[in-house]
Amino acid sequence: MGSxxxxxxxxxxxxxxxGAMLVALGKPIVAYLDEDPDTVADVKVVYTAIMAGVAMIMxxxxxxxxxxxxxxxxxxxxx
Length: 79
Fold this sequence. Notes:
The chain is mainly α and 79 residues long.
């Protein structure tokens, strides 16, 4: 984690993924706690949003491990 540009983007992407997953889980929780039995959460939408959140988190981890294009391998002590 030596380059601030990719680290910043990685952290932002991870936080966005966590946010997407929290929003996706919010609707079924509200539907479950609702007193109306006709309120049902759409499972496909929730699943898709959770998978998108997981993909964003994985991409963010990849950005945390990456280096900037303007850094040489010698600059970052890459093997």
